[in-house]
Write the C-alpha cells for this entry.
Amino acid sequence: MNIKINNIIKTNNEVGDNLTPNSIKPKDFKVDFWKSKNIEFSFGEIIEDNSPDSRDEETFMGPTPKPSGTDLRSWDMKLLERYPPFYAPFCDMCCLCTFGKCDLTGKKGACGIDIKAQQGRFALLTCCIGAAAHSAHSRHLLEYLIHKCGSDHPVDFGNNIDIEAPIMRTLIGKAPKTLGDIRESMDYIEEENLHLLSTCHTGQEGNHLDFESKAFHAGLMDHIGMEIGDVSQIAALDLPKGEANTPLVELGIGAIDHDKPVILCIGHNIAPGVGIVDYLEDNDFEDEIELCGICCTSIDITRYSDRAKVVGPISKQLKFLKSGVADVVVVDEQCIRSDVLEEAQKKGAALIATTDKMCLGLDDRTNDPVDAIVADIISKKDDGALILDPEKVGEVATKLSLSLSKSRKSLKSLPDMDKIQEDAFKCTECEWCVRVCPNSIPIMDAVSSAGKGDFESTEKLYDHDICYTCGRCEQECPENIKIMDLMAKIGENNLKKEKFNIRVGRGPIQDVEVRRVGAPLVLGDIPGIVAFVGCSNYPDGADDVAKMAEEFLERNYIVVTSGCGAMSIGEYKNEEGKTLYERFSGDFDARGLINVGSCVSNSHIPGVAIKVANIFAKKPLEGNFEVIADYIFNRIGACGVAWGAYSQKAAAIASGVNRWGIPVILGPHGSKYRRLYLGRSDKEETWNLTDMRTGKLIKGEPAPEHLLYAAESREEATVNIAKNCIRPTDNNKGRQIKLNHYIDLHKKYFGTIPEDVYRYIRNEKDIPITYKNDVKEILERNDWEPRELVMEPTILDFPRDE
Amino acid sequence: MNIKINNIIKTNNEVGDNLTPNSIKPKDFKVDFWKSKNIEFSFGEIIEDNSPDSRDEETFMGPTPKPSGTDLRSWDMKLLERYPPFYAPFCDMCCLCTFGKCDLTGKKGACGIDIKAQQGRFALLTCCIGAAAHSAHSRHLLEYLIHKCGSDHPVDFGNNIDIEAPIMRTLIGKAPKTLGDIRESMDYIEEENLHLLSTCHTGQEGNHLDFESKAFHAGLMDHIGMEIGDVSQIAALDLPKGEANTPLVELGIGAIDHDKPVILCIGHNIAPGVGIVDYLEDNDFEDEIELCGICCTSIDITRYSDRAKVVGPISKQLKFLKSGVADVVVVDEQCIRSDVLEEAQKKGAALIATTDKMCLGLDDRTNDPVDAIVADIISKKDDGALILDPEKVGEVATKLSLSLSKSRKSLKSLPDMDKIQEDAFKCTECEWCVRVCPNSIPIMDAVSSAGKGDFESTEKLYDHDICYTCGRCEQECPENIKIMDLMAKIGENNLKKEKFNIRVGRGPIQDVEVRRVGAPLVLGDIPGIVAFVGCSNYPDGADDVAKMAEEFLERNYIVVTSGCGAMSIGEYKNEEGKTLYERFSGDFDARGLINVGSCVSNSHIPGVAIKVANIFAKKPLEGNFEVIADYIFNRIGACGVAWGAYSQKAAAIASGVNRWGIPVILGPHGSKYRRLYLGRSDKEETWNLTDMRTGKLIKGEPAPEHLLYAAESREEATVNIAKNCIRPTDNNKGRQIKLNHYIDLHKKYFGTIPEDVYRYIRNEKDIPITYKNDVKEILERNDWEPRELVMEPTILDFPRDE
Amino acid sequence: MNDRVIPWQPTVIAGPKQALLATPETAKLMLKKAKRPLFVVGPYAKNEPLMSHVKEIAEIWDLPIVTTADTFKSFHDNGIESDSYGIVEIANLLKDPEWEGIKGEGQNDLVLFVGCIYYIASQGLSTLKHFAPHLKTLTICKYFHSNADASFPNMKDEEWEKYLTKMKTK
Amino acid sequence: MNDRVIPWQPTVIAGPKQALLATPETAKLMLKKAKRPLFVVGPYAKNEPLMSHVKEIAEIWDLPIVTTADTFKSFHDNGIESDSYGIVEIANLLKDPEWEGIKGEGQNDLVLFVGCIYYIASQGLSTLKHFAPHLKTLTICKYFHSNADASFPNMKDEEWEKYLTKMKTK
Ligand code: SF4
Ligand code: SF4
Ligand code: SF4
Ligand code: SF4
Ligand code: SF4
Ligand code: SF4
Ligand code: SF4
Ligand code: SF4
C-alpha cells in the first residue's frame, strides 16, 4: 500500500510554533512566514512525485495567504464606502435569544443591538449557512473521492489549464497538486466558517459594517468551498476539464422515458449518482433504466455520464414527484423538498437518503445487505432507507427500480382529467391561494377555469414554471383542492412540449481562452461577461432568464451560466424550435454560451476573472487577494445575475462575488435577502480612483453603479446589466461599445436615452456614434466636462505614506 | 529554535488514504483503523518528549472515535423516544429564504418543511451558533496560547488529575499531551460544525428527529470546544488545576475602587486580560490600577490573578457602564452589549476591541505604535481602537486608564438625585415600559414613585438584578426617561451593599475526589450533583439561583456552578452577611460548592460524570461515547440548572449535557428556546430498561423524568431538580434519601406528598421512613406492585441478536 | 391598531393567525359548547382577588383545575382542589389527542388559561395552536394573548374584575 | 381579525408596528399636510385603468412621479412625465435625509406608492419604516401594506376604483 502525506507543512525559523498552517496566528501571521522555504514530509512508503511541484517555483507570496476576516477588512470597508448596505428588514423583530423577541423598530434589543447591525448579522448568518452548504458538501465529496481514488490522485486538468484552482491559489497561497492537498484548504475554510458563525451569537459584533465585512468573508470562503468541490470532482471523476464543446443532453419532463424503470436523483452531491451510474454501467443496465435528476445533481451526473437526463431545476420537483414517474427517488443534499419522503410515499416510490444532511428519519441501512434493504422496501416494511455508501446506493436503487417499475405502473400517471376538474370545481374563489402565492400569480383563475373544464390558464402557468409548484396555495386552500395535481396533470398532458436540451457543464475556462479574451475584455471590445446563476425563484417564470441570456448573446457578450439558471436557459426555444445551446457555441468568447456546470462550478466564474488578472495581466495570485479583487473590480466588465436566487447559498455566492469586485443583480425576491449594496451615483466624490501609474486621484464614474441590486422586472434588470458592465479601464472604443448597448437597451425598454449616460463619458471619443447628437444634448444639459482617462485604476490606498 | 510536530498521525495498512484523521471517511472509518499502531512523526529539531505518552499504553478503542453525527444517531433516537421534543414555536413563520416568509401554521413552507422540522432546524441552528461561539473562542485562545507557550507546552494538570480532558479522550479517542495535540480536536469540531450548519440550509433535513439528533451533535461538539478552551488556558496560563480551596475574590459593583484608574474587561476570552495583568505586573501597576471584569472574562482573569475583581454577571453591564466608573473598557467576545461603544462614548471612556468577533467599526490599530494609539484616543480623534494583539492591549489599556482617570473624574458619577427625579417625573404611566420588559416587572411604578422622590421600589428592582438592565423599557419610553440612569444611580447610592465574593474557578475535579464520591453518587447516598450554570435571564432576580443552591447544599447535594450562575450565587448573603462561598467548602463532595470557572469550564461538569464512569466504574473512554452516556444517564444523579439561560451557547451546552444523559432544567424564559425534551411518566412502557447482567427487560421509572424542562417558578424548579436526581441504580438506601428530599421539598413548596412518588418505589425498602404511612397510602391508591431492582441498567440494544 | 388586541408583550406577535377577541359573553358561549373543558391556572392566582375568581368560575362551570408552577399549594391551603402540572407538562399532554386526561376522562376540547406568566403561557399556547387542533384555547387574563384561539383584551384591573364577575353566571 | 387590514400577503406581517388603515379621506388629509410629497408608481400602472388614475391623481395633487421597474416607458409613451428609478434605488435615496430630491428640491416628507410588486414594495416600505423617520409612507394599492405608515385596505376592484376616484378631488 502506498502512503504519502501530501500536506506540505511550511515553517519558518522565526515562528517556531506556527505548525498548523490552517490556523491563523493571533499575530505571527506574517508575510515572511509564507515566503520561507517549504519543507515537505512524507511517511510510509514514499512515492516519487513527478507532477510539477510548486515548491520548485520561486513564487512571491503576497500579504494575505489564508486571510482571516480582519486581514481583508480594509478592502471590505472600501467597497462598503462606495456601496453602503441598503437594509430592508424582513421582520422588525429579533428572535435569536430568549431575551427576545425584541422589537427593533427605532429601538435597540435587550442585547443592545440595533436594526442595522441585526440586518448585517442576518446577512452574515445567511452567508455562513450558504457557505456551509457548499463547503460541507465539498468536504463530503473530497473525502469520498479520496477514498475512491487515493489522496495522491493528481489535480491536473491537462495542458490547456495551468491554473486549476485560481481561488485556492489566491487565497491559500498555493495550488493543490493532488486531492490530498485540497484538505489544507478545506481545513482553512472550516476554521474560518466557525469564527464567522460565532460572530452571529448574541453579544458579539455590534457594527453593521463589520457584520458586512464578515459576510463578505463568508462569501469568499464559500467560493473556496465551491472550488474545492468542483476541482475535486473534475479531477477524480474525469468530468469535462474545460472543453468548450461538451455534448448536449436531454432536458425536460418530456425527455424522460416513462416506460422504463426510472431512478430520480435530487440534490447536489454527485456521490450517489456516481454509484448509480457505475452500477448501471458495470451491469449493462444503461439502456434498460432511465436515470434522471433534478437540481445540480442532475447537471453533475450528466458531466459524468451523458446518458443521464436532466428533468429540470428545483421548480420541477413537486411537479415531477406528483407525476409518479420516478420509481426510486434518491436524495442527497440541498434544495430538496423537505416533504420528499411524503410525496414519494404518496406515489409508492421508494426513497433512498444518502447523506448525513438529509436522513429523513429513515433507518440507517448502510451496513445491511443489499437484498435485505430491497426486500424491506418492496414489502412495504420500510418506506425507504438511509444508505451512506454511494456504491450500495447504486445497487439498491437499481434493484428497486427494476422491481417497482412493474408494480407501480398504475401509479405512474395522475388521476383522469375529469377527476381533476371535479376537484377544481370546488373552488369558491376565496382568493387565498393568490394571496399566499409568493408571486401572487393568478392561480385562482386557473383553478376556477379548470373547474369549468378550461385548462388553458393553468397551462400558461405551467409553462416556463410561472408557477414553480412551491405548494403554498394548495396548503392554504380551504377546499383542499389538489392544485399541485392539477399542475402535474398539465405537464403529463404536454409531455411533448417539455423536451429541451442543455450543454453538459464544462467546468473551468481554459488558459488559452483567457489569453484570447483578456485584452478585449479589459478594454471593452467584448462588452462584458454576464453570468446567469442561481435558483428558480423567478418573479415571472423561467423564460425571463433565457430572454436575458439571448439578448446579451446576440449583443456579443460572453454569457456564462450554471445550475438551475443553465437549465432555465435550456428550457427556452426560438420559433424554429432551437434552444440557446443549439444556437450559440460553448466557447468562452463573444457570443459564447458557457454552462460551467453545477452550483459548485460557480467558482469558475470568479475563477476566470482571476485568471484574466494572472494570465493576461501577469498579476501574481498567491496571497494577493486585494490586488486581484481591485484588478477585477476596476477592469473586468462582469456582472452576475441571480434572477431566481432564493437560497442562503445564493446569498453566499453573491457576497463572495461582490468581494471579488463583481456586481450582482438579483430578481425582486432578492429584496427579501434584506440587504443590498447600492452605490450613489449622485455623490460624485464616491467614485474617485487612484491611477497607479501616477499616484494621482482621478474622477471616476459609477462603474459598477451598484454592487448588489434587486430589479423589479426583467426589463429593468437587462438595462442595469448592460450598465454594470462598464469599467474604468474601457478604452474609448470599448466604452462606446458598452454605452451603445446600454443606450440601445434603455431605448428598447424605457423608450429614451438614459439621462445618466453623461456620467460615463470621459471625453467625446466615448460617445457612441449612433447616438452622438442625443448624447451631446444630454452632456450639455448636465454641465458635462471632459475628464482624464485613468490608466491603472485602483481603489486601494496607493501610493501610501506610512 | 526547537520545533516539534505534536500531532500524532495514525494510520492503518488497510486504509491507505485515511491520512487526515480529522476527516471522517464516508465509509472506511472502522474500528480497526483506530486500533492500529500509531506512527509518530517529528520534524525540525527533535526534542526528547519525556511526558507519559499514550502511544505506549495499549488502549482499547471503542466504536466511535471522532464520531460523525450519524455515528451516534441511534443513541439520539433512544433518547428522543423517551423524551420526544416538545415544540413551542416562537414564531409561526419561517423567514430563512426568499421564497418566504412562509406561514407554517398547519401548513408546509414553500420548501416543504413543516413546523416541527422547522423548530428542530431552529434548535440545530441555535446549537451550531452556540457551539461556534465557544469553539471559535477556543481556537483563538489555543492559537494564542501556542504562540505564547509553544505547541509543545504540556497539558499536564499534575498528579491529582490523570484524565485531563475526559471529553476529548472519549470523543477524539485520545488525550492531548501538549497544546499542539489539541489542534486535532479543534480540526475535528470545525469540520463537524460545518456539516451541522450546512443542514440548516433550505432543502436539507426534513425530519424533526434528525434535526434534534444533529442538535445533540452540535451540543456535543460544543462540549469539546469548551474543554479545549479551558484545558488550554489552564495548562498554558497555570490557572488552578482542580484545587478545591481556591481563594475568594471580591465581587460586586461596590468592590471596585472608584478612585483608582479602572480598566473593565467584558466578555469571555482571557487573552486581552492576560495581556493587561502581565503588563500591570511587569510594570508594578497592580496597586495603582483597578482591573475588573464582567461576564466570564472576569472569572477567568481572577483565575489568572486573584487581584482582579468581578463586577458581576451580564446583568450588571449596562448598570456599570452607565455608572461611568470604568475609564477603559476592553471588550473581547460574547455576551457584550452591542451598544458598548456608544455607552462608553457617553461616559467618555475609551474602548478597546480585541478580537475579530467584535470590531465595532473601529480602526485596526494592531500594527501601530502604542503611543500613537493612546494619543489618538486621548485627543478624542478616535473613540477607541481595534487591537488584535493582547500584549499591546495591556499596554494601551494601562496607559489610557492612567491618563483618562484624571480627566474623567466628573464622568465617574451620575447626575444628582434631583435631576434623576425630575426626569422620572415625566412619567405618564402609559405602562409601555412594563409591556416591553421581558419580565413585565413593575418598572412603571418604580419610575413614577421615583418621580415623586421615593426610590424604594427602584431599589427593590435593582437588588439581585430583578431588573437586569436590558434597556428595553428605556428604549420604549415615549417620554424618553433615562430609566437606566435611574437604575445605575441606585447602585451608586448603595455601593456598600453591593460587595460580595466568589470562589476562584478551580477548573476540573480531581481524580481522587471522583474516587471518593463515585460509589455514593451511583448508589444514591449523595443525593445528586446539581449544576447551576448559564446566564442571568432570570424571571425574578438572581436570588432565586442562590436560594436553590443553598437549599441543595444544605441537603448534602454537591453543587457545581460556573459563569454568571457562579456570580449570582456569590451575590447572595445570609442574615449574618455571609455568602454561600464562605459558608460551604469548595470540595467536590456532599455540601461542596464548586465554582468550576467560566463558560468554557462547564466542560468539567459532564467531565466529572465521565470520570466517574472511568475512574470509579472502569469504563474505557476512548471512542466509547454511547457506553459512557448510557452509564451516566442511568447512574449518575446529576441535574443541570440553567435558570437564566438566554444564549445560543447555553442552548448548545444543554443539548450536549442532554446527549451525555444528564437532564437540564431551565427557567421560564427557556420556553423561548422553542424546544424541550419532555418525558411521559404516564406512559409506563417508555421507561423500560435492560439489565446488562441478565439481558432481561425490566420495568424502570421516569428517572430522569424530563431531559430538558422549563419551570415557571423557583419552587417548581426546586422540586423538579430533586426528582430529576433519581436514577435506576440507586440502592434502597440511596433511593430513600433521594425520595426523602423530593418529598420534603414537595411538601415545602406544594404542601403535599407528591402523588407520583409511587412510580419511584421499587419495593418497600425504597420508602423513606419519615413518610412511610403517607407513602403507603399513595401506593395503595395507585395499585402499586413491587418490582425488580435493576443491576446494570442500560437503554442500549443489549444483548442484541444480529 | 386597537391597543386592546395587541399582544400584551407586543413582540409575542407570531404571524398571521391571531386570537379572536373574547368578551365574557363569547367566552361563556365557548364554555357552553365545550364537552370537556379544563382550567389551567398559574401563579398569579396564588393571591386574591384572582384566587377567588378562579374558584367561583371553576365551580359554576364545573371545571377541573390544573395549577401550574407552585400554585397548587395556595389553592390546597385554601381548600381549592387542583392537579399540579408544570405549564410545559400540561401543554405537552394537551397536545396528545390520545392523552387520557387528568382524571382519565379523556382529552379536553377547551382549555381556559388564567394567571400564568405571560411569556411562558404564550409559548404553551403556541404549542397548542400548532399541535393541538383537537382543542380550543381561551385566556381570561387581563392581557391579550394572541397565541390563544380567543382571549380577553388588554384591560385595567377594574374592567377585568367586571369581566371575571360576568364569567360567574351561566 | 379584520381581513381588510391583514397584509395582502399575510406573512408580510413584520412585528408590532402596523400601518394605519387609510381611507381616501385620511389619505387626502395626509397629502394636504405634506410639504413635499412624491408619487412612486410601479409596473402595475403600465396598464389601464391604473395609469389614468395615477395621471389624474398626480395632476390634482401636483405630485412628481417616480416610475419603478420599466414603467417609465408606458408613461413616457402616454405622455406622462416621470423620473425612472429602481424601487430599491428610490427607497435608498428616500432614506437619506440629505438627499437632494429628484429635482433638487430636497428630501420628501410624504411618499405615495402604487402599483409596485407587492413584496418588493413591502421591503422598500420596511426600509423607510426603519430608516426614514423624516417621511411618511402611504400606499393606495388595493392591497393592505402593513409596512407603510398608512395604507388602503385590501379591496376588490370596484371598491378600489371608488377609492381612487375619490383621490381625484382635493
Ligand atoms: S419572522 Fe423570522 S425573524 Fe421574525 S420573529 Fe419570525 S422567525 Fe424571527
Ligand atoms: S439577540 Fe438581542 S435583539 Fe435578538 S432576541 Fe436576543 S436580546 Fe433581543
Ligand atoms: S404552487 Fe404555484 S401557484 Fe401555488 S403558491 Fe406556489 S407558485 Fe403560487
Ligand atoms: S384557495 Fe382554493 S378555494 Fe380559494 S380561490 Fe384558491 S383554489 Fe379556490
Ligand atoms: S426555508 Fe422553507 S419555510 Fe423557510 S422561508 Fe424558505 S421556503 Fe419558506
Ligand atoms: S431594563 Fe429592567 S425594567 Fe427595563 S425592560 Fe429591562 S429588565 Fe425590564
Ligand atoms: S414607558 Fe415611560 S412614561 Fe410610560 S410608564 Fe414607563 S416610564 Fe412612564
Ligand atoms: S454565563 Fe451566560 S451570560 Fe454569563 S457570561 Fe457566560 S454566556 Fe454570558
Q: What stands out?
A: The radius of gyration of chain B is 27 Å. Chain B has a mean pLDDT of 91.
